[in-house]
Amino acid sequence: MSGDKMIILVTGGSGLVGKAIQTIVEKEKRPNEEWIFVRSKDADLSDREQTKALFDRHHPTHVIHLAAMVGGLFHNMSHNLDFLRTNIHINDNVLQTSYETGVVKVVSCLSTCIFPDKTSYPIDETMIHNGPPHPSNFGYSYAKRLIDIANRGYHEQHGCCYTSVVPCNVFGPYDNFSLESSHVIPALIRRMHDLIEKDNSEQAEFTVLGSGKPLRQFIYSLDLAKLFLWVLREYNSVEPIILSVDEADEVSISTAAECVAKAFDFRGRLTYDTSKADGQFKKTASNAKLRHHLPDFKFTPFKQAIAETVNWFKLNRSSARL
Ligand code: NAP
Ligand code: GFB
After folding, report:
1. For residues 55 and 152, what is the distance between their CA atoms, to the nearest angstrom?
2. Which domain holds residue 72?
3. Which residue from 94, 160, 202, 291 has the least number of CB within 10 angstroms?
4. Is 99 tagged catalytic?
5. Is the CB–ligand 1 distance for residue 72 below 6 Å?
6. Are residues 310 and 186 part of one domain?
7. What is the pLDDT of residues 270-284, one digit of tens each?
8. For residue 131, is it left (φ>0), alpha (ψ between -120 and 50) or beta?
């Protein structure tokens, strides 16, 4: 496999993770690899015919499937049905079209937020279907869990090597910084940037939504991208693999907000709007399986990744997804 020509189609190629993979591929692509990054204007993957036309255009041998309706806690809470239906259609179209066109390997993307809400910790890959997900994002969660179910079906019935990775929360350059649908890190960065443009005095007040108490593991998009290349090239099990920073790197939302404030040299004070939802309190995931394969992988320190993302946003706000 390492010498054969590979045509790698990356769906969701214009997003946070897709752009990070593009950045890493520019430095680490191999001579036998042709990389194609696509987005919704190339094909609406919720439409079977457009999906088929895309695959007929590129004849991929491998697919990294990132395309999805993606959003933070508040967007999930208000659009659970949309997240469910849109992602079910996208995922079924991509997997079935991959099978029909003879794609050798598909690496799809789950998330640590799809695990059971009532569970023991740390979460590991064997626990995905052990109970209902947190109610805030049941639509997204069930659509994602079906990817794992489908992968097992394609393997059992057709011998396909379709697998999935399970990232923790991701952030980095090219993230979605919109006020309506963003995740917490890009939301904090965008809102703090815009506040400081008006007022960075000691009287300035920045509001963090929720209590700030929930805990999260955050992976820098460029680190995740490197792990995606390893999974594509070396990981050949249908079983999902968690791609997360260590349990010890878990931080509270308030610590994350303080890191963003420090990166901006914010001189005001943080306040917490506890009338807003906290979502899952924690979803601590074990990366023991990843560490077994890559014991020496180095994650970018959280504060450094935050600083790099803040700097990226300062330089690219005019072209960022707002
Ligand atoms: P993102 O920044 O929102 O990007 C989504 C990508 O999917 C974009 O390239 C978008 O294209 C494409 N897309 C959306 N709907 C489409 C459609 N109907 N047809 C074709 N393409 C479509 O998302 P992300 O954060 O990079 O997430 C990538 C993957 O990682 C997703 O599967 C997500 O579930 C997973 N994940 C993300 C996180 C996180 O914290 N961000 C955590 C765990 C897992 P356009 O830009 O053209 O619309
Ligand atoms: O990244 P996030 O929106 O989603 O983080 P989840 C939500 C946490 O950050 C909650 C707090 O505790 C919020 O109260 N928070 C504070 C904020 N300020 C803000 C803000 O301005 N915006 C946002 N969005 N949150 C998601 C799932 O859960 O995890 C998705 O709903 C997805 O399906 C994602 O999988 C990775 O981490 O709570």
Report:
1. 22
2. 6-170+217-245
3. 202
4. no
5. no
6. yes
7. 999 999 999 999 999
8. left
